[in-house]
Structure formats: C-alpha cells, structure tokens
Amino acid sequence: MAEVVLNGVSKTFGATEAVRHVSMTVPDGAFVVLLGPTGAGKTTTLRLIAGLEAPDAGTITIGGEVVNGTSPAERNVAMVFQQYSLYPHLTVRENLEFPLKSPILRTPKAEIDRRISEVAKVLRIDHKLDNKSTQLSGGEMQRVSIGRALVREPAIFLMDEPLSSLDAKLRSELRVELKRIQAQLGATVLYVTHDQIEAMTMATHVGVLDEGGLVQFGTPREIYENPVSTYVASRLGLPRINLLPVSVFPGAPADAAIIGLRPEQIEQGAGREAKVTRVEHLGDQMRVHLDLEGQAITTLADPHQNYATGDTLKIQPRDPLYFDATGQRI
Amino acid sequence: MSSFSVTEPSKGQKWFAGIVVVVYALVTLMPLVWIIATGFKSPADAIAYPPKIVYEPTLEGYVNLFTTRTRMTPEALEEIGPPQTWYDRIVRRYDMVISGPSRYGERFLNSIIIGFGSTFLSIFLGTLAAYAFSRYRVPLKDDLMFFILSTRMMPPIAVAIPIFLMFRQLGLSDTHLGMILLYTAVNLSLSVWLLKGFIDEIPIEYEEAALIDGYTRFQAFYKVVLPQATTGIASTAIFCLIFSWNEYAFAVLLTSGTAQTAPPFIPTIIGVGKDWPAVAAGTTLFLVPVMVFTILLRKHLLRGITFGAVRK
Prior knowledge:
A: alpha+beta, CATH 2.40.50.140, B: mainly alpha, ABC_transpr_MalK/UgpC-like (chain A), transport (chain A), ATP binding (chain A), nucleotide-binding (chain A), ATP hydrolysis activity (chain A)
C-alpha cells in the first residue's frame, strides 16, 4: 500500500477540460471517495492514476515515485470498472487468476489457490469458481470484478462506482464488506461514487469535483458541516440542504445572499410560520415539505407527529450556513 | 382458436420456406453429386446417354488419376506375367501397365502449401493491421482503409500482365513463395476489413483491465483480444482459403511446374483419352481439404461470443 499524490494534474479531451489542475494527496491506508455529478472528472482522475490516460500537465506520484509515462502494469494499481469487464472467454477462477499470473507478479500456484479461495469466500462466489464468467448474474459478475482487484496487493485500489449496478441489499452488504477488507488490509482506496451513503460510511476523506476541478477535500464530517460552497453543500445530505434567499430569516451577515439549512438546522415550534404542503412517512422518520413565502423547504420531523397537508408549522434556523451571491461560503 | 403471432411463422410460411430450402439444396448439390458419382464410373458409363443413374462402381478413375500408364503389346504383357495388385488388374483390362505415379499428388500438395500458407499469412497480417486500425490513432485512417478496400474494386486478373512481368523480374514465377505472396495480397483487403469489424466489437475495457492486471499491450492483445476474435478469425480464414484454393487464372498464368496448383492441373488430365472419371475423381478429392477445414472451424464460429459480459 502506498500514498498517492496528484500535483497540478490536468487532462483535456479535444475542447473539454476533463480534469483541471487537480492537486490531492491520498494518504497511505486512506479510503478516499470522489464525489461529483457525471462529467465532473471523477473517472478521468482514476484513469490518470491507473495510467490508462496520460496527463497533459502535472505529476502523479505513487509511493514516492513519479509514475508519469509508466505503463499501467508498472504502477501496480488495481481497478474495478463501472462496467464489469470480466474476460468472457475465461471461467471465474481464470478471471481471478489473471492478475496473479501476469508476467509482473508470477505468483506460485499454491499461493494463487490460497488467495482465490479466500477472496471467493469473502465475496460469496466460491460455488461459482468453475462457471464461465458469462453465465453469472450482474451482481455476481461485479463481485468477481471486485475479487480480481482484491486478490492482488496493489499500491492503490481504484474503484469506479463498483456497487452501482447491484441491487440495494447486495450493495449494502458489499459496502460493509469492502470497508472491512480495506480496514483489515490497511489498503489505500480511491473510490468514485454518486451514492452519498457510500461516501459517508466508507470514506476517511472525501474529494468533491466540479467541472474537472477539486473544490474541497476533507473528512466526510468536514465536508458535511463546513462546505466551502453551495455546490459542495448540495453533494452530501439527504434530504438535500435547503438553499433560500437570505431575506427569509432575519439575522444574516451583511454580504450573505443565500442561507443554507440542512433539515437538522431547522428548529420547529418557534419563528416564522410555514405551510405544510406534503408529508412523507419513511417509517423511522418523517419528511415534511413546507412552503415559506413561496420557497420550498424540506425538513425532518418525529414520525409520531401528526402533521397533515395544510397545517402550519413555526420554524427558525439554528446555526445556518451562509453563502454569498456566487455560492461561496461566508 | 388460432391467433396471429409475430414471432411464430404460419404453417403456410413454414411449408414455403421448406420448399425453397429443398429446391436450393437440390440446385447446389446436384453438380456435386454428379461429380462424385462420375468419379466412380467407368469411362464408358461416364459418357453414356441417357446418363446412367445405376452403374457398377469402379475405382478406375482414381487409379488413372494417380498413375501414368503405358500400353503394351500382348507379347510384352505375357512376359510381365499376371497383374499383382487390384490396381494393376484395373489397368490391365486396357492392355496397359502402370509406369509410375502421376503429378496429381504433387499438385495437390502445392495447393495445400499455397492455400494454407497464404491463408495463414493473410490472417496473421490482417489481424495485426485490423487491431492497429481499430485501436490506434492512425493518421489518414479512413483513407488508408479505403485504399485497402479499393484493391478489391477490380478483378485481380486485370493486373495480370504487370504481375506476370514483376514475378519474372523478381524470379517469383512458378514458386510457392510467389503464389503465397500473391494470394495474400489479394486476400488482405478482405481480411483487414472483416477482422477490423470483429475487433471493433470487442470492448476496449477488456484490454484496459488486462493492462492494469499487469500485462503489456501485446500480451493483452494475445491473451484477451485474440481469444475473443476467434469467431471472426475463423470465418475470415474460411473465406481466404476458399479464394486461394479455387483460384485458377493466376495459377495458369504464373505456374507451370514446381508450384502448379491443382486447379490448372485437373483439366490437363482429360488429355486425349477424355478420361472424365479421373477428372471427377481429382475434383472430388480437391473438395475435401476445404470441407474438412470448414467443419473443423465451425465450432469456433459459435464460440467466443462476448454477449452479456459487458454492460453497455
């Protein structure tokens, strides 16, 4: 396992700047999650580290060595693709053996067998080892794909939305499993996802990308509690942060234009009156959609409350986040 | 109750399709059956009119195909004594003895060397070129691909005279190497285009995965791309072999002895004796290698289908 450092890395495809001056340190043993919408440069960042793309500018360092210009094989990275790319002409076992049998590793037979049975057990694919990889279900294919990365001991694991194609149950199981394996191996992981639960539960660090640039990097808690902009604030939190004009509530600083309220930053029972427009019971919690001077606000309430559409509810902010007109945090 | 189905053909459609298939099979198979049957007829039966459907089969055609024979006077035959083998007995009916092997075996071997040699070379070069065109940023790629295809836009025999002169200058006339190179040149455009299509279909993710798994570009090509391209390679190889195996015009023009293939040789068997059974026998045997090759590769045509392994 190793530390990975990106220093001023840029990559342009034609007219699009996919990655723009990204500098970031993935500490040894860290689980770093990259967040951002489609096209923010998450996958390109992974591919640059893997060596599948060459950066136009900047340096990439893995374990203290600059790897610009070296082949993917020389970098000793493992990658799980979003599109599960099992070799269709090989069995599950042959797929898992493939990286271990590479000319770089040349693992002895006994060691290969040991690691494969270990990984297969963890991912619960041990009964499918002799199946053709094309005979598997989508979930099984993706587990084999993850397994093909896990059988190695690479400098860093690069994972590009590895769980996005799985059903909810399997996803939550594998999420716990991946985190457990990562902690146990002390593995360095760079993980791309859209799923904020994955980000919050697995990450030791979160990097938020916007149009190719890294806008904030920190622990999940830092990102959640101290977002640098409305963009970052909107990436984490469910229901999403409410962004309202500052005039709605009194007491804002002079240059603030937007007030950001996460559901838990809305105090109920005092303050201004808002109208309940919709109530969603989720079992363990209740989402209340409110209307305040034409502004839609979503908050959470005790599931035992009996709110109904048309009720009025007094609300006031508690430790809100303030942003200026461009969306930057004040 | 009968209902209309979009996927299940009606009874009438099935019958119609069946009849079309049977008629087509009859039309294509008749000449083949005729040739095979003629190979086992005696020369008299072969030219009988109306044609004989029932006849006494004989291996005379095959014996004549593989041997040269000399007519002897009855006294000379007496001196030699009675025929020793079944094929001696066949030729003795015509007061002849076998004086040696014919050239059919050599010509057949030439066909094998040249046909399979040029097929191998076309596939080998074609696969590499198709991979490069499919995966790399080649300058003027479209123009080059068009140029490669354009070599097919005229009948190859249109350039027979220049090729004849070139071969004479280079000393390639009537050589195996010359014929292999010529057939490879003709087949390459087909193999590059066909194989590029097949390789384009193989997602690049597999190679990227292999690169990350610790393999070089060439190893990724060899271990991941090639096994998945077997379908395309097999069908392309069949096309290439059929062309070079059956090619007649260049073979007549450029070969006369050492490197002569079977197609220009078979008609010469007719000679003065109008030995149709021998011609038919030569033709029948000539069909076998391509048939065997196609049957051997048939299972590859169904294998290596990447269906379902990559989510699109």
